[in-house]
Amino acid sequence: MSSLESDVHLLALKVMRLTRPALVATGPIVNCDLGDELRPFSSVQKKDKKSEVVGKPLTAGEILLLPQSFGNIYLGETFSSYICVHNCTANSVECVTVKADLQSNTSRINLPIHENCKSSVMLAPDETLDDVIRYEVKEIGTHILVCEVNYTTPAGFDQSLRKLFKFQVLKPLDVKTKFYNAEMDEIYLEAQIQNVTTGPFCLEKVELDNSEHYTVTSLNTLSNGESVLTSKHMLQPNNSCQFLYCIKVCTKCLKLTSALVHT
Questions:
Q1: How far apart are CA 205 and CA 217, in angstroms?
Q2: Which helix (H) or strand (E) holds 251?
Q3: 14-64 pLDDT per residue, tens
Q4: 62: alpha, beta or left, given left = phi > 0 and alpha = psi -120 to 50?
Q5: Across residues 173-194, what is the average pLDDT?
């Protein structure tokens, strides 16, 4: 969970993207005394002094690493962010409202936010107004989270605090296809799916749907009828897997094509 704080203001605005921490590998910890490194093992046994720990002890902070920036997000993921507005002054601040928009290359979406944040409220000294926003990203490219806070100062002046947070939405998969012609009304399609993310993910289902012009038969089953794609098929970064389908043109389409040729 990373945070970016606002500039000095009557209200402090903090925005945190909610993400899972990353796992960091740690080296092994060896217990020994520096002075015993070159001594025979027998002399170490006779020594009464308790061994010292070389290196830092293993702690939870060395295994889980929290993200230090907004980072990237992949298409289809749900963008989750925590918005917090805090009154840092000794006076009450009135008419506080919070608004959040997500802007892409083609659109600007007003994100759903709790009614307490949208309606005008008063923040007492050291009081906080917060909410968690979630949105499933559906477009690749640069996205900007726009957070805006409006309020009235104790002197009666209207003020506005606006912060922008930029992040990239990347595609998680790269799909390549190859077509193989067989008989007149059959085509074989090979689909290669590659994991282009930085971490592994689980493929739950890969399907090619039928159309009004053709029917699809999946050739991705074993001799016992089970699918080659198990429920826990993990695809590592940069790895690929292939799927094969038989596409058959509908009989009505073939008759229509034949009629047009004879005409």
A1: 15
A2: helix 251-262
A3: 988 887 766 665 555 455 554 444 444 444 444 444 444 444 444 444 556
A4: alpha
A5: 88
Distance between CA atoms of 69 and 184, rounded to whole angstroms?
55
CA-to-CA separations, 237 to 67, 118, 138, 207, in angstroms, rounded: 20, 41, 22, 21
Residue 263: what pLDDT?
47
* Sheet of 78-87, strands arranged across: 2-5, 11-17, 78-87, 128-136
Bridge-based pairing of strands 72-74 and 158-170 is parallel
For the full predicted model, state whether its pTM sits above 0.70.
Answer: no
What Å distances lie between residue 234 and 126, 195, 237, CA to CA?
Answer: 47, 10, 10
State the alpha helices, DSSP H only, in 34-123. Answer: 41-46, 115-118
13 burial via Cβ count (<10 Å: 0-12, 13-18, 19+): buried
Is 114 in contact with 130 (CB distance < 8 Å)?
A: no
